[in-house]
Design goal:
The protein is α/β, with parallel strands linked by helices and about 200 residues long. It has a single domain, classed as SGNH hydrolase (Rossmann fold, 3-Layer(aba) Sandwich). Helices cover about 45% and strands about 15% of the residues. The chain has helices at about 1-20, 45, 55-65, 80-85, 85-90, 105, 110-125, 145-160, 185-200, and strands at about 35-40, 70, 95-100, 130-135, 160-165. The chain has a 5-stranded parallel beta sheet with strand order 2-1-3-4-5, with helices on both faces. It is globular.
């Protein structure tokens, strides 16, 4: 009986090991260089709808006990963010960059192809400085215009970490939202927790 069980156990161990070590998607710059953690994005990064120091970068900084630069600008599209990328991110020795961009492209009817190319350029430019990139995606049923798939595609191609839907469990819950689009402080806590779980293995 033991002669049968031992080979079966060995096969199972090999299968589990293979799945653990080889099935996880590759992450570019998993051992990042640089000095600063930067949150780069639009109103979701800036903290529109929250009280002072309740934006997600401020809350995340308290979770990890490290300073975080909030480089969020309300209303930014991916094109507008590209225009300030050098000054607000690349010139500040990025180590990890957390991105929330694309929501205004979606709202302003900018094509997902344009948003994809801009976002890819942003991600690769940051990665070329040795930084790890984490993207908070948006996936909204019915009127999302395929942006959810766009985030998956760009992160797969660039090997950036993806949180598929940063709004999951937040949008639609009145206790977590300040208005139809922006979370309140409690909602931003949920966002900070999502980013924390994504970045924790690389801190």
């Amino acid at each position: 009986m033991k002669k049968i069980i031992l080979p079966i156990l060995a096969v199972l161990v090999l299968l589990v090991g293979y799945k653990f070590f080889f099935s996880r998607p590759a992450v570019r710059n998993s051992q990042p260089t640089g000095e600063n953690i930067i949150c780069f994005g639009d109103s979701l990064t800036f903290g529109t709808g929250a009280a002072e120091n309740m934006d997600y970068p401020s809350q995340l900084a308290r979770m990890i006990l490290k300073p975080i630069i909030n480089a969020g600008v309300p209303g930014d599209t991916t094109a507008m963010a590209m225009a300030r990328l050098e000054e607000d991110v690349l010139a500040k020795s990025p180590r990890m960059v957390l991105i929330t961009l694309g929501g205004n492209d979606l709202k302003n009817r900018i094509s997902k192809e344009t948003a994809y190319q801009n976002l890819k350029n942003i991600i690769v430019s940051i990665q070329n400085r040795g930084a790890l990139v984490i993207v908070g995606g948006i996936s909204i049923p019915f009127w999302g215009r395929g942006f959810g798939e766009m985030y998956q595609k760009v992160c797969k191609e660039t090997q950036a970490l993806l949180i598929p839907n940063i709004f999951d469990g937040i949008i639609g819950d009145k206790s977590l939202m300040n208005d139809r689009i922006h979370p309140n402080g409690r909602g931003y806590t949920r966002m900070a927790q999502k980013f924390y779980r994504a970045m924790k293995p690389y801190l």
